[in-house]
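Ticket 4471: requesting a sanity check on a complex prediction with adenosine-5'-diphosphate. Repro inputs:
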Amino acid sequence: MSILVENTTKLYGKQKALNQVSFEIPSGEIVGFLGPNGAGKSTMMKIITAYISKTKGTVVVNGFDVDKDPLEVKRSVGYLPEHNPLYLDLYIKEYLKFHAEIHKVNKERIEEIIELVGLSPEQNKKISQLSKGYRQRVGLAAALLHDPEVLILDEPTTGLDPNQLADIRNLIKEIGKTKTVLLSTHIMQEVEAMCDRVIIINKGEIVADKKLEDLLKDQEQIIEVEFDLRVEKQLLQKIPNIKTIDNIFNNTWHLTFDTKNDMRAQIFDFAKDNGLRTLQLQQKINSLESLFHNLTN
Ligand code: ADP
Ligand code: MG
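Returned structure tokens:
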């Protein structure tokens, strides 16, 4: 197990930021840590990286207990904090050299990591001269220098424009092939784009922990359709993959399907084959987005 969190509680004074949080992440998984602002994501990440202490519970990273072996934990973990604090006046290479010295890694590794995160074209610049996307690459490079087993990325894509977003997501996916990654975000699509699994936190408590493929399986297709004439429910049952049939009013029906394949064309064909005309049709996919809203509202 790469990350083990058991019954972890964190109090800031009287305020409970985490309440009995438990989860396990096996090595090699990319896990999205999703929750609204103030849910406790950064707090959990700072505890996992041994930056702050917890009030109660057990946290073990790469086999090391955060209380007993904080230095070993820091050696095992690459951490990109929220807002990616950087020294803007330093050149990229100076900044990475500073990190290399902390972790006692050699100079060749700096060249290697610059290449790996795609910083080569900008490598002779000052950090202040870089776009937000390239600054994120510098943060990722610093987190990866000592080749940690586990990567903790706190909102790594917040504030990026759409192109930078795609680049950084691809980079994280690539890095995730060889590492355990826990990344926080408040955007559901982000999890869909990058992760194998999602852990949803709300008000300091875990409210969902699911593999992405299972979440996708749970998705439901809803079609509301109005025909020009009356139709018997038994007839509608003949439409393939139909799950539930409800008559909302007159000739308008609320249908659900247990397939992600678009059923709209099938409904038109059904109408035509049965001498009906489709006056209105509206399709909705009950998405991950709505799951997130249901769990956190
Ligand atoms: P998230 O990262 O999900 O937005 P945080 O972990 O930053 O959430 O915060 C969780 C809760 O703990 C919030 O209510 C926040 O105001 C509070 N909090 C975070 N850091 C501190 C701190 N250093 N002192 C007091 N309260 C804090
Ligand atoms: Mg945060």
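Notes from triage: The first helix runs from residue 41 to 48. Leaving this open until the requester confirms.
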